[in-house]
């Protein structure tokens, strides 16, 4: 099996992972169980950084490579913007 890992796929997967993290953090009581609270506390600074950096990198590579609407960069940007709006308005 030939698995090709590209910047677009990495950014798309990272944006999905960050969106999942923020969705869980906003909807569940992460301190109800100690282990989940520990994982949350260990990851929050990295997820905050990804919350800011993923859209910047996605837009940069999308413009640099002159990719179209079908590219992973575009979808990573949309997911990041959707996550930002969800966290902001929740």
Index terms:
90 residues, mainly alpha, 3 helices, elongated
Polypeptide structure, described:
The protein contains 3 helices and no strands. It has helices at residues 7-27, 34-64, 72-89. The protein has one domain (7-89). The protein is mainly alpha-helical and 90 residues long.
Write a concise synopsis of the structure shown:
The protein contains three helices and no strands.
- What structural class is derived from the secondary structure elements? mainly alpha
Q: Quote the beta fraction.
A: under 5%
Largest sheet: none
The number of domains is 1
List the topology elements:
Layout: H1 7-27, H2 34-64, H3 72-89
Helix pairs in contact: 1-2, 1-3, 2-3
